From TrEMBL:
Entry-linked PANTHER family: ALDO/KETO REDUCTASE
Chain's role: Catalyzes the initial reaction in the xylose utilization pathway by reducing D-xylose into xylitol. Xylose is a major component of hemicelluloses such as xylan. Most fungi utilize D-xylose via three enzymatic reactions, xylose reductase (XR), xylitol dehydrogenase (XDH), and xylulokinase, to form xylulose 5-phosphate, which enters pentose phosphate pathway.
GO molecular-function terms, A-Z: D-xylose reductase (NADPH) activity
Originating species: Aspergillus mulundensis
Keyword Transcription belongs to the record: no
Residues with site note (Lowers pKa of active site Tyr): 79
Protein name per the record: D-xylose reductase [NAD(P)H]
Lineage, top ranks: Eukaryota, Fungi, Dikarya, Ascomycota, Pezizomycotina
Pfam families according to UniProt: Aldo_ket_red
Active-site positions on this chain: 50
Main EC class the enzyme belongs to: oxidoreductase
The protein's annotated pathway: Carbohydrate metabolism; D-xylose degradation
Reaction catalysis annotation: xylitol + NAD(+) = D-xylose + NADH + H(+); xylitol + NADP(+) = D-xylose + NADPH + H(+)
Domain NADP-dependent oxidoreductase, residue spans: 17-301
Length: 319
């Protein structure tokens, strides 16, 4: 099964549907990545913070060794964690992450959050998470410009083909675009019918920046993390607007949610620990919702954000 491609401003093609690696269990991650490649996935969305880049790389290596794909068939994404925003920390940590994956370049390397935290030595704790070596959340001193300049250095050295940002507001993006020598290729944001972010999506598109949606299923991903307002939100899979369309098209609610996003020109990276759902989530471009159906789903927008540091009681205000 193949997926459509999005042309990035860096000149590279990015698959519109990929596999998200957050909360993919370490003991099953290698197999899951290998099975995902066999099922047709070519894009993997990883991060230092997910703590499973070694295992994901093992899955990739097995698929390449068995001749299922070559490295150039794949689009591997990773992210710079907050503790490594200081200019001189960016390249060493990117090199460590590449070594963990067992590859020599990332197709896309993303600034995970617009938040600089103080450095944590990977020898002390890895991935570091939000707290420093003393267990405190402590802001670092790097500006976004300092970090972005170091990210551009990764492209110059061939360590990343494209670079991007995540969890950035339009204001930050406006600023970054003033000084960026290499423009961000993608903006990765929380995006689902309860948080459609219309203006930010339109702004990114106007600026030639591709948008990738994360947490496409809304509250579902956050219930296991005990995010309280996720537990209180009506599950999107049970929402009549989604359920009725799933019945109409003979698809699952998950497929309707992913198709709604892809028809809006947005890339998606659903995560599943389940082999059957993994296959289902890739099969999301073979049917089309009508324009009024897309609008009806978009009308569910409530500005409801789940992936906010405040949801995890972290004293970091970015939204
Ligand atoms: N940049 C960022 O800050 C950021 C933040 C969050 C996420 N992300 C990225 O985006 C990816 C996706 O987001 P996400 O992991 O939050 O959530 P998601 O893909 O919206 O949802 C995952 C949840 O949905 C379930 N699920 C998956 N497919 C399903 C299906 N077809 N039917 C029913 N249930 C299904 C999963 O359970 P099972 O595993 O049991 O199937 C899991 O509970 C992440 O893995 C990560 O790569 C990035």
């Amino acid at each position: 099964m193949s997926t459509s491609l999005i042309k990035l401003n860096s000149g590279y093609d990015m698959p519109q549907v990929g596999f998200g690696l957050w909360k993919v269990n370490n003991d099953t991650c290698a197999d899951q990545v290998y099975e995902a490649i066999k099922a047709g996935y070519r894009l993997f969305d990883g991060a230092c913070d997910y703590g499973n880049e070694v295992e994901a790389g093992q899955g990739v290596a097995r698929a390449i060794k068995e001749g299922i794909v070559t490295r150039s068939d794949l689009f591997i994404v990773s992210k710079l964690w907050n503790s490594f925003h200081d200019g001189e920390r960016v390249e060493p940590i990117a090199r460590k992450q590449l070594a963990d994956w067992g590859i020599d370049y990332f197709d896309l390397y993303i600034v995970h959050f617009p938040v600089s935290l103080t450095y944590v030595d990977p020898e002390v704790r890895y991935p570091p998470g939000w707290e420093n070596a003393e267990g405190k959340v402590e802001l670092g001193k790097a500006t976004i410009q300092e970090t972005w300049t170091a990210m551009e250095g990764l492209v110059d050295k061939g360590l990343a083909r494209s670079i991007g940002i995540s969890n950035f507001s339009a204001q930050l993006l406006l600023d970054l675009l003033r000084y960026a020598r290499i423009r961000p290729a993608t903006l990765q944001i929380e995006h689902h019918p309860y948080l459609t972010q219309e203006r930010l999506v339109a702004f990114a598109k106007r600026e030639g920046i591709a948008v990738t949606a994360y947490s496409s299923f809304g509250p579902l991903s956050f219930i296991e993390l005990n995010v309280k307002h996720a537990e209180g939100a009506q599950p999107l899979f049970e929402h009549e607007a989604i359920k009725s369309l799933a019945e109409k098209y003979g698809k699952t609610p998950a497929q309707v949610l992913l198709r709604w996003a892809t028809q809006r020109g947005i890339a998606v990276i659903p995560k599943s620990n389940n082999p059957k759902r993994l296959v289902e989530n890739l099969d999301v471009v073979g049917f089309d919702l009508k324009e009024e159906e897309i609008e009806a789903i978009s009308a569910l927008d409530r500005g409801l954000r789940f992936n906010d540091p405040h949801s995890y009681d972290l004293p970091i205000t970015i939204f």
